[in-house]
Fold:
Amino acid sequence: MTGGAFLRLLSGLWLLLCFNMAADALEFSGQSANLVMGSKNSLQQQGISGLERVRLKVAHTAGSWSGQLAYDHEAVWGAMVRDPLFPLQAAQPQPTFFDATATVRQSRSLYWQHTLYRGWIQFDNRKVRVTAGRQRIAWGSGRIWNPTDRFNPVQPTALEVDQKLGVDALNAEWRYASAGSVQAVLAPGRPAAAVSRKLALRWRDTLADTDVAVLAARIGGESVVGADLTGNWFDAGWRLEGMQAWQHGGRSYGQCVIGVDYTWMNAWLPQGLYLAVEYFYNGAAAWPVTHDRLQSRSAHLLGSMAGYDLTPLLRLDLLLINDLQQASWFASPSLTWSVVENVDLKLFSQLPGGRGAGEFGLLKALYALRIDWYF
Structure:
């Protein structure tokens, strides 16, 4: 289905929701993101690039029915667009079933597109919740990696780890208890965009002091089972998350995360220093790249995170990942300042290093400033 046809269908359903039921007022909001960064391109040339995004949201509730539309205009400019590899990257279709993206303008120094970021309608009577459309399905408890998230996997080295495009799916959940539910998700495939058909069932509940989730899925040609466990050990939190996949012909692989986090407080750190350590095993390190699972060239990665609130409005964070197979590493320090109630400023960098054969050896150092305005 084309983006225009999809938007017309979604708009028609929205009209039914807004005008055929007793309704509250529409809720409008948005976000403006401005990102300026310096890095080298594929020809090892240093340059300045920028990303500008305006996201408009409208939400509506009518009894047990609700819906949301989030629409983006996004422009990339500067050295990134002039990179010889950029036209190939821009020509790749988004990994979604519905084609709801179009290019507004493309030149030697500017690439401007608009897209549907979210678009869903939901029925929720507290026992049963059914959501249809483009949505975020967040599975997994890992702080850096989530191998059980086969719908919206995001690499920890992504420029914007908080931007998750979502999946076009029908998502139904039955809440049989306060902490227990059974969830079924059906997402159709689109071979032209290398999007696999996905069917998944997930059960979650709390047993004693442990949160437990178990899933079974069919992802394209793979049969998948997985589990996610989280709990407390003294004052620390622990998590174990993993999945095993089998393909036709008997080939199989597994991915697993083991992690622990802790907030350390004393007289010198009154706000509490957050610390986390996580190990990621990737049995698919040598497998072909796909959109629907975590990727890494190394089978063994060790990540750590630290964060501290210097003031109520100023926070310092650090992400560090080490490749345990090859001598390479990735560091991303950041400083976030809440300038006013609806404006955040973030200064961050991505600093890879090590051998070219390692997980991070081919990445380029990047220095960036991001400003987010919420309205």
About this structure: The CA atoms of residues 120 and 133 lie 4 Å apart. Residues 3-19 form the longest helix (17 residues).
